[in-house]
Automatic annotation (TrEMBL):
Signal peptide: none annotated. GO terms for molecular function: nucleic acid binding. Transmembrane segments: none annotated. Gene3D superfamilies: Ribonuclease H-like superfamily/Ribonuclease H. InterPro entries: Integrase_cat-core, RNaseH-like_sf, RNaseH_sf. GO terms for biological process: DNA integration. It comes from Mikania micrantha. Residues 1-151 form the Integrase catalytic domain. This is Integrase catalytic domain-containing protein. It comes from the Eukaryota.
Length: 170
């Protein structure tokens, strides 16, 4: 778990991305937030986006960001039964998976910011989709495939807009 901060502000005021990576499948969530969001709001986002979709993690590795060392955050995870492991000061490699994911995300975001300016938040779900469907040599699959057991291919039928809608025979 880590943050990418000091991004260009979006229309909704977001200027930070909360990066959460599953160490087993390398699956990642990129959550747009405001750097000033309080811990209570981050907790609601965490429960909605992570716990409700994947369950309670066994352990979490995070940097020593003050929000994650707060009593409330520690109490929440004690109640959930999650072990909190803080990375060692001045040794970001302790949380190496997040650091590698952040480097990849920053590269992907540079392209978005160049193309889309301050609307990076709008495109973040597609960046997350792209990341989670990209092959990772460390697991021999894409994170989506490692998590769900199959590729996330969507079959689409492209129909020119000038055609009339298809009506099945009665």
């Amino acid at each position: 778990m880590d943050f990418i901060t000091k991004l260009p502000k979006t229309a909704s005021g977001c200027d930070t991305i909360w990066v959460i990576v599953d160490r087993l499948t390398k699956s990642a969530h990129f959550l747009p937030i405001k750097e000033t969001d309080r811990l209570e709001k981050l907790t609601r986002i965490y429960l909605k986006e992570i716990v409700s979709r994947h369950g309670v993690p066994i352990s979490i590795i995070s940097d020593r960001e003050s929000r994650f060392t707060a009593h409330f955050w520690k109490s929440l995870h004690k109640a959930l039964g999650t072990r909190l492991d803080m990375s060692t000061a001045y040794h970001p490699q302790t949380d190496g998976q997040s650091e590698r994911t952040i480097q990849t995300l920053e590269d992907m975001l540079r392209a978005c910011v160049i193309d889309f300016g301050n609307s990076w938040e709008t495109h973040l779900p597609l960046v997350e989709f792209s990341y989670n469907n990209s092959y990772h040599t460390s697991i021999g699959a894409a994170p989506f495939e490692a998590l769900y057991g199959h590729n996330d291919f969507i079959t689409c039928v492209l129909v020119p807009t000038c055609m009339t809608p298809f009506k099945p025979p009665s």
